[in-house]
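yo, Creatininase family protein is done. seq:
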Amino acid sequence: MNNNKNSEHTVKWGFYQQMRPVQIESIHSKTPIAYLPWGAIEYHGKHNPIGLDSTKALNMTVDLAKITGGLVFPTVHLAANLIKSYPGVDFPKHSIEFSEKLIRNICEEYFEQLVLQEFKIIVLLCGHAGEPHLDILKTVAKAFNQKYPDKYFWAFAEFEVIPKELLIANHSALGETSLQLYYAPETVNLEALPKDRIISLEQDAVSGSDPRLATSAHGEKIVKSYIKNASKFMEALIQKYL
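structure:
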């Protein structure tokens, strides 16, 4: 939580669940922005933690909230369309998968609750890009934008605001592993990856560029690009809706 004694010109943000009502209201009155990180509990190979998607979503959400102000809600650790259900892949353990119907219902009910709390901008950053999981969240956001035209619901994945040469959708590959090395290096073990063969989805649960090349420095480049582009979009939303 942001415990600094901010001047009235300093952006204020905080973790919703860690704040008292008067603190929440102080932030909400100036920046009625709700941030909802959305992760997953999913197998990410032997080299990455099960909660990679959640770690990524939470930290990247906080990075943005620190710039724009607003309130960061607890991470939703629920996802559909995990690697355990991918055709031809056999990783049945260490993934907790939920139905597409439940994901849609939870997103709809969460958004309705945030409307009742009088937030003007709702930002859902999805750390899990399984299909149609991400599309479901974006479809719900689109429907709510039509239902509540005086508010804005932005559901997206981090790679959608980053140049493709720096990051594309991947599963525990170079991009995600570099982000994990940047945010939580103690949770990554690159030595667990094989050294004598090509990395594959079927054997290693990796889809994308070779994670053995991942570095914290590359993760930092991704984060800086994300912050630059996402904050620019948020500035436009703030001008329009706040």
